Amino acid sequence: MVDVYEEYLQMPQSLTAEEMSKLHMELAAEIGNDEDALELYDELIQAATRYADFRANWRLWSREEKLDKDPSRTSCHNSVIVKCNQLARFLKMQGKPAGWRDVLGDEQENPGCRKRIGDFACYLVFVNALLAR
What's the pTM value of the predicted model, to 2 decimals? Predict the structure, then answer.
């Protein structure tokens, strides 16, 4: 079997696990104990979890299932991006740099960044799932 992670790293806009971990640490440090930021983060995790379910099943679904679920997947992905933007905007209003959001890229300027944002959302779900043991 091909090393799936190595295959992923060759894709455009990919982030290494180390890069995603660093972005997550920056994000967590900026959020700190701020209740409003924590609420926005929870909303991001909820949207990311829904999106990760689509991603996790995508390769398992038939072509017909993909065609049927694609509009919902896109809508969910859009929700993840909105939640990222809301959290970054809030943190910036609090004087935080929110540099993690800049690293993910602006999907308006570069549509390829959508995949990068989706990857980071899946990473957040991965970490959240590990913490749930």
Answer: 0.94
